[in-house]
Write a structure and sequence with these properties.
The chain is an alpha/beta fold and 427 residues long. The chain has helices spanning 4-10, 21-29, 38-42, 64-73, 80-95, 106-119, 123-128, 153-156, 168-174, 196-206, 223-230, 256-264, 281-296, 299-317, 352-361, 387-393, 410-424, and strands spanning 48-49, 99-103, 140-144, 161-165, 179-185, 210-213, 234-238, 250-254, 323-328, 338-343, 366-367, 398-402. Helix 4 packs antiparallel against helix 13, helix 5 (80-95) packs parallel to helix 13 (281-296) and helix 6 (106-119) crosses helix 12.
Length: 427
């Protein structure tokens, strides 16, 4: 807002002689305030996201409606349990589950879901987690060997251990009085010997709850209710990816009794293993609005927009000497069109790592991905948390580009910059 000295100075350069000072003062007073650029102020790099909904890249950009709801609700008090009650009812209706709650991400949903299985509505047991000895609580989670990846650490937070199996016979032998949960990871469902329906059937046969992690498995939108209808007792999903809710939010959905028990283990209660898993009213309501808007999307139109953006970027480089392009769609997880650009190193003197660094360090900064590298290997400042994997892939002459996190028009910027760098490095 202009100060008085600036306003008075403005009076000496009025465009119309004789204009009333009061009118000028009123116009100046109503001038829009300059927005504070906190990123620039703190020296934080922002970038165009051509890589995807990666947590270390801050996930997604929330929908405008979500930001508006967060802003509007931040000025009012509300009881967290009442907010969870009302939002959970609405979410459950939309995802075809008995009950639901908003969590602080899919990882939190996993911890809370298992905690609910272990404790039920027994407050004394809730207070004892993660100390299971002598409590009468179960202590093991069974999953297929190919499904036992790092995010299963969420279960270890409850004090449980993971038991790996490979065949149905292995499951039958592993089940005991200690078995609390049979867990399934959807993104690698094509790798395990036991498929979804058979896994659910095993749980029902032995009266053991089954769960499924679908954190990054929307789209397709039908996955929001598919696994509830299939019979899984607990379903875990991230809210800060395709649904474009708060990055700090997720959804736990499933059987009514298990969700009630999970709620007993969750904030605002302060005596639980998950006290640190807070989601405030703004995030809970924002997550609900994000889900509501996502379900109302024209998903066919959105898909076509992604295809058009990918095609634009492909066309910008496909005619260059030594360049090969391919468009693929992952079978599982982050199911959106992906453009892989590769090149002959005799023509383009550049590695994939070097191209990504040039895009990252250019103006505007652009983040691209590395084809063939699982999402959980990505880490800021490097290509992998596993040095051996990074060393193996370091010389690969390719990059992977996605379009679903691009803002309108950014595909033109990405296309121009990639083309520039490839031409610059060509002989």
């Amino acid at each position: 807002m202009m100060n008085r000295r600036e306003i008075l100075k403005g009076l000496t350069v009025l465009p119309l002689a004789g204009a009333a000072p009061q009118a000028v003062l009123a116009t100046a007073a109503n001038a829009p305030a300059k927005h504070r650029d906190i990123f620039q102020e703190l020296g934080i790099r922002t970038f165009i996201n051509a890589a995807g909904t990666l947590t270390y890249m801050s996930g997604c950009i929330m929908r405008e409606e979500v930001v508006e709801i967060i802003d509007r609700t931040s000025g009012h008090f509300a009881m967290i349990d009442e907010v969870q009650d009302k939002v959970g009812e609405r979410i459950a209706q939309r995802v075809h589950s008995e009950a639901a709650m908003v969590t602080s991400g899919a990882f939190s949903a996993m911890t809370l879901g298992l905690a609910g299985v272990l404790t039920g509505l027994d407050v004394r047991k809730v207070e004892q987690l993660p100390h299971l000895e002598g409590t009468g609580m179960k202590s093991e989670v069974i999953c297929q060997k190919t499904h036992n990846e790092r995010y299963n650490h969420a279960f270890l937070n409850t004090g449980c251990r993971i038991v790996e199996v490979e065949t149905v016979d292995d499951v039958e032998k592993a089940i005991s009085e200690k078995t609390a949960l049979l867990h399934f990871l959807n993104i690698v469902s094509n790798q395990g010997q036991i498929k979804h329906e058979e896994w659910v059937a095993l749980g029902k046969k032995h009266n053991i709850p089954t769960s499924i992690d679908i954190a990054a498995d929307v789209p397709p939108v039908s996955n929001l209710w598919k696994f509830n209808e299939m019979g899984f007792d607990l379903v875990f999903i991230s809210g800060g990816k395709a649904i474009r809710g708060p990055q700090s939010a997720g959804i736990l959905m499933g059987k009514k009794d298990l969700i009630a028990a999970a709620r007993l283990n969750s904030p605002p209660r302060g005596f639980t293993v998950a006290r640190g898993h807070k989601v405030n009213k703004e995030e809970i309501l924002g997550m609900y609005v994000a889900l509501e808007k996502y379900l109302a999307n024209d998903h066919d139109k959105e898909w076509k927009e992604w295809e058009n953006r990918i095609a634009y970027m492909q066309n910008a480089v496909s005619g260059l000497k030594g360049i090969t392009t391919k468009i693929t769609i992952p079978e599982l997880g982050n199911v959106t069109p992906v453009l892989t650009i590769s090149w002959d190193d005799a023509v383009v003197k550049l590695t994939g790592r070097e191209l990504r660094d040039r895009l990252r360090n250019g103006l505007p900064s652009i983040e691209a991905g590395f084809a063939g590298l699982p999402l959980y290997h990505y880490q800021a400042g490097s290509d992998s948390v596993d040095p051996a994997v990074a060393e193996t892939l370091k010389g690969e002459n390719l990059v992977r580009i996605t379009a679903w996190m691009l803002q309108p028009g950014e595909e033109k910027i990405v296309a121009r910059r990639v083309r520039e760098e490839l031409l610059t490095a060509s002989v």
